[in-house]
Amino acid sequence: MLHRIWLGFFLVAFISSLVQWLWVGDAEVFQRLVSSLALSGRVAAAGDGECLSALLVATSATRATSFR
């Protein structure tokens, strides 16, 4: 059951990204989607003490690239 919930999350994210790309014209939406997935993977792989610092560093790096 849990795998269906996660699959639903990924499908909703992909469909909303597709809508943003086609109707809004945001061509960088897929880059942000992939970097967010990589961020969640890094945070999940980090230990308890490193989890918050990995999240803060990756979030600040993502924000810096999205303002260019």
TL;DR of this structure?
This protein has 68 residues and is an all-alpha fold. The chain contains three helices and no strands. The protein has helices at residues 2-24, 29-45, 48-66.
State mean pLDDT (0 to 100 scale). Answer: 76
Radius of gyration: 14 Å
Q: Major beta sheet, specifics?
A: none
Order of helices and strands: HHH
Distance between the termini: 40 Å
The percentage helix is over 70%
Strands, total number: 0
Strand fraction band? under 5%
* Stretches with pLDDT under 50, minimum 5 residues: none
Give the structural class: mainly alpha
What is the overall silhouette? Answer: flat
Structure explained in plain terms:
This protein is an all-alpha fold. The protein has one domain. It has 3 helices and no strands. Helix 2 (29-45) packs antiparallel against helix 3. The chain starts with a helix and ends with a helix. The model has no long low-confidence stretch (mean pLDDT 76).
Give me the secondary-structure topology:
Blueprint: H1 2-24, H2 29-45, H3 48-66
Helix pairs in contact: 2-3
What attributes characterize this protein structure?
single chain, 68 residues, mainly alpha, 3 helices, flat
